[in-house]
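Appendix B. One record, verbatim.
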Amino acid sequence: MPNITWDAASYKKNFSFVPAYGEAVIGLITKPPGSSVIDLGCGSGSLTGRIAQKGYTVTGIDDSEEMLRLAKKEHPDINFIKGNAVTFHLAEEADVVFSNAVFHWVDEKDQQEMLSNICRSLKPGGELVCEFGGSGCAETVHGTLEQCFSHRGLGYRRVFYFPTIGQYAPMLEKAGFRIEYAALFDRPTPQNGPDGLADWIRMFVKKPFEGMEESLKEEIIADAVSRLRDRLCRDGRWTVDYVRIQFRAVRKRSKS
């Protein structure tokens, strides 16, 4: 199941790079305009809108009611429904399931079930097009936070799922897909403003801080920022060491 609760307003204000980078992923779709597309984990609907502009019949699905309210407000002509990646259900099979920056938020134990559910939701020959965090994503930040936690006698919970192609491809095949395209690549990602790294941690690293006093949380974030300044900040601009993984996989056609 997804393991984060979103602050939609802050996400839109400070992290617009997420859908901005995702626009390139739309280019991996090979189905023609007019095809039915599910934007799985649509968030604020920014990419859902871009998919619609390209002539697709698109439906956005997200598990965050706050994000869905924002999506419906900004894109009133698009159909948005509540559902999570593991258990969503469609009345009719789709031509494409598209997903950007979502799968790494799904617990590792649920990944196979999620992929099987996606495959069942596609027509035979339909395609899954996705990008999410790959092996080593933001490891400089996570490793440093782990040190900061350990220094205080605390354990740092690694809740993100960042696989290699070799780990993920067999899972796609087991779910019923044939892989047509796969890539794993570094994508250093600039953050907004002089507090960009601290804002990034507050937005995306929530589970490890659950139940912690706010003062201790801010102390740890400040410690991490101090330790990382020389490595990740240049001319006052923070950059996080993202690694991304992309797939285009097609649901196998039945033999009959």
